[in-house]
């Protein structure tokens, strides 16, 4: 209800979807922070990683498998890339439907800002 990523999953809001299966979709971030900035989200609504249940373990593994495939396809896997999942406001989470950021194509700084 009113979740922007649920709306993208249900195709009520357009997005540049680059991968989709029964469990997840991946689409390009609307405000990219790196040359590659893709989001992998579960189709199921989960507001933060704190809400993950044991039954979601396979889903999480699948999200990482999909992210790895995208990183390889986009040619950033060997150079290096970052997978990020923010949790709650102080981390910078703004959309409360979990998503794995795939960031790459430039040098990543550490510590993050
Ligand atoms: P967070 O800050 O919650 O970790 O990340 C949310 C991300 O979703 C941000 O990088 C933001 O640019 C992206 N985003 C927010 N709204 C939309 C949208 O409507 N479409 C797309 N493609 N990305 C979005
Ligand atoms: Zn949602």
Whole-number tally of structural domains: 1
**Unreliable stretches covering 5 or more consecutive residues:** none
Terminal Cα separation, in Å? 31 Å
Secondary-structure element order, as H and E? HEEEHEE
Percent helix among the residues? 10-25%
Question: SSE layout and pairings?
Answer:
Layout: H1 4-9, E1 17-20, E2 24-28, E3 36-42, H2 57-73, E4 81-84, E5 100-104
Antiparallel strand pairs: 1-2, 2-3, 3-5, 4-5
Please tag this protein with its features:
single chain; 113 residues; alpha+beta; 5-stranded antiparallel β-sheet; 5 strands; globular; binds zinc ion
3D architecture notes:
- With 113 residues, the protein is an alpha+beta fold.
- The chain has a single domain (4-104), classed as 2-Layer Sandwich (HIT family, subunit A), CATH 3.30.428.
- Helices cover 20% and strands 22% of the residues.
- It has two helices and five strands, in the order αβββαββ.
- The chain has helices spanning 4-9, 57-73, and strands at 17-20, 24-28, 36-42, 81-84, 100-104.
- A five-stranded antiparallel beta sheet has the order 1-2-3-5-4, with helices on one face.
- A hairpin with a 7-residue loop joins strand 2 (24-28) and strand 3.
- The model has no long low-confidence stretch (mean pLDDT 97).
- The structure holds guanosine-5'-monophosphate (5GP) and zinc ion (ZN).
């Amino acid at each position: 209800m009113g979740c922007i990523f649920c709306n993208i999953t249900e195709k009520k809001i357009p997005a540049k979807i680059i991968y989709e299966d029964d469990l997840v979709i991946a689409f390009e971030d609307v405000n990219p922070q790196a040359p590659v900035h893709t989001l992998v989200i579960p189709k199921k609504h989960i507001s933060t990683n704190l809400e993950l249940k044991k039954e979601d373990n396979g889903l999480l593994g699948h999200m990482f498998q999909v992210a790895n495939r995208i990183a390889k396809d986009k040619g950033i896997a060997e150079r290096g890339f970052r997978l990020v999942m923010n949790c709650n406001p102080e981390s910078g989470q703004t959309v409360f439907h979990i998503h794995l950021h795939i960031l790459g194509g430039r040098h990543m700084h550490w510590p993050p800002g």
